[in-house]
UniProtKB/TrEMBL annotation:
InterPro entries per the UniProt record, alphabetical: NAD(P)-bd_dom (IPR016040), NAD(P)-bd_dom_sf (IPR036291), Polyketide_Oxido-like (IPR051606)
UniProt GO molecular function: oxidoreductase activity, acting on the CH-NH group of donors, NAD or NADP as acceptor
Alphabetized PANTHER family for the sequence: FLAVIN REDUCTASE (NADPH)
CDD domains linked to this entry: BVR-B_like_SDR_a
Domain called NAD(P)-binding: residue spans: 9-193
Domain of life: Bacteria
Designated name of the protein: Putative NADH-flavin reductase
One Pfam family, short name: NAD_binding_10
TM region positions: none
Organism from which the protein derives: Bifidobacterium thermophilum RBL67
């Protein structure tokens, strides 16, 4: 049985990833700071920054669903990811990161990111910048079996679960309807699929509704 831990499992994406994994027969541990409000069979009640290598020992994968939104906490995208990478360093445990769309490239030369385009909302630029920095730092890690999963540009927390998605790479990709959109529920399917059958080690992948 596949054994995973979901960090920040009480969040919107974390809860759905936990549910998807449990429904698929995974043995799931929720890592939460307070009460466990997920469907996970087990829980580690601990702050992310207090996690140790022993806490995460033996899992097939650890999903990082941590998010920070306020100006004073945005740097934690880098510090939290570094902490998880450090305690998983040299192990066979995969680190699957719930990423952002702002760092997806919009040109084949990979010189312009979505966050750099004129229509990208100013209000989201600080978040996109912080997440892009964390990804750039993660790319330098050769000691961790990481995979960074970017959602589509329109990432809908309450969107429907269609059960279908399209897997892409580093570039922003539109679906057949000309949209860059995915629900949290379909994104959760992609995360669990990557753990179950994917092998994008040391890569950033992206998903859009099919």
């Amino acid at each position: 049985m596949t054994s995973i831990a979901v960090v920040a499992a009480n969040g919107k994406s974390g809860k759905l990833i936990v549910k998807e994994a449990v429904d698929r027969g995974f043995d799931v541990t929720a890592v939460v700071r307070g009460d466990n409000h997920t469907a996970a069979q087990h829980a580690i009640i601990k702050d992310l920054f207090d996690l140790t290598a022993d806490d995460l020992k033996g899992f097939d994968a650890v999903v990082d669903a941590f998010g920070a939104w306020t100006p004073d906490t945005l740097p934690q995208h880098s510090t939290s990811l570094k902490h998880l990478a450090d305690i998983l360093s040299g192990t066979q445990t995969r680190l699957i990161v719930v990423g952002g769309a702002g760092s997806l490239y919009v040109d084949p030369e990979h010189t312009t990111q979505l966050a750099d385009t004129p229509n990208f909302p100013d209000s989201f630029k600080p978040l996109a910048t912080a997440m892009a920095k964390a990804l750039a730092e993660l790319r330098e890690r050769k000691d961790v079996r990481w995979t960074y999963v970017s959602p589509a540009a329109d990432f809908q927390a309450d969107g429907e679960r269609t059960g279908k998605y399209q897997l892409n790479g580093e570039e922003l990709t539109l679906n057949a309807a000309g949209e860059s959109i995915i629900s949290y529920a379909d994104y959760a399917i992609a995360i669990v699929d990557e753990i179950a059958t994917g092998n994008h080690i040391g890569e950033r992948i992206s998903v859009v509704r099919a």
